[in-house]
Amino acid sequence: MTFTILPAVDVRHGQAVQLVQGVDGTQKVFGSPLEAALRWQNEGATWLHLVNLDAAFGDEDSQAIVASVVAGVTMNVELTGGIRDDATLEAALATGCARVNIGTAAVENPSWVKRVLARYGERIAISVDVRGSELASRGWTERSDLALDPFLVSMAEAGCSRFVVTDVARDGMLGGPNLDLLAHVALLTNAKVTASGGVTTAADVRALTQLATVGVDSAIIGTALYLGHVTLDEALTMASDIAVGPKVDPRTARRMTGEVPFVSVGEEVAGASEGTVGHTGVGLVANGEGR
Ligand code: AMZ
Q: Which residue is closest in CA terms to ligand 1's atom 1?
């Protein structure tokens, strides 16, 4: 497996859009969602990150549109937005998407999410939308009091095999990803990490691939692709020779086994002040003291 690039198609009011820091009304509009998706497919994408923003904001029903996008492409689709109960989950899975991401429900209704993680395994990833040190939900209009690290550990213990991590403040800002946050999340548990928010240049993709050994195996690119800051071909080329294998703990140089969490909860969680996103640093040879 090589490092995966997922172009994003975010659907708002029937159009493919890109928002700035997720704020409704800031969107640049890029036409039909299916046409946008097919463009990325034709340019070589094997995965699509498809966001039902209307459902994430909770003010419009766009299920038929996202279902038609899934049906109209041959790429693997990661479908997300508004999946918060059995009905919305079943509808999302029934589109034929490869994977769904759940954000709001993971903070508001963790017992339900743990149940569906146990049932659906790798078809479900948890969307970790972080603003500062807090989890954002409901279209990023609300914040949760949950401390990040215990939240991540509990989801991993419940069987979450992937966190899709977005630094909300960087999303749409074209300023590069939050490598510290991504490394921090990757080091905390066995789960793989998909990077999102701020990925702008081929150099950003290269920097992310350097986190592949700790479990960052993929990146979502949105605004930068639509505005041409990086072409999909450049991003795919940058990612193509990066082999993604088992995670390696940089502190022990050992391959990770199936044990969760990656390091002991006490060490990780006690080492960070509550609710704080630690600064792991990208060198990643520290023993946790730098957090
Ligand atoms: O841009 C936003 N305001 C926004 C956005 N992109 N709000 C939510 N989302 C995405 C999350 C995740 O992929 O990054 O929607 C999904 C989460 O939806 P929910 O309904 O599960 O919280």
A: 22
- Extents of the domains making up the chain: 4-286
In this model, does residue 272 exceed pLDDT 90?
no
- Using the atom order of ligand 1, give the atom closest to the CA of residue 105: 21
C-alpha pair distances (Å), 20 with each of 90, 147, 168, 213, 253: 30, 25, 9, 30, 39
**Nearest in space to 78 (alpha carbons), one of 39, 115, 33, 48:** 48
What is the 289 CA–ligand 1 centroid distance (Å)? 32
Q: CA-CA distance, 199 to 191, in Å (whole number)?
A: 21
Q: Which of 129, 171, 204, 217 is catalytic?
A: 129
For the domain spanning 4-286, the CATH number is: 3.20.20.70
- Residue 222 beta carbon below 6 angstroms from any ligand 1 atom: no
Say what the pTM is.
0.89
Residue 76: its H or E element: strand 76-80
Is residue 10 flagged as an active site residue? yes
pLDDT at 257: 58
Atom of ligand 1 lying closest to residue 141 CA: 3
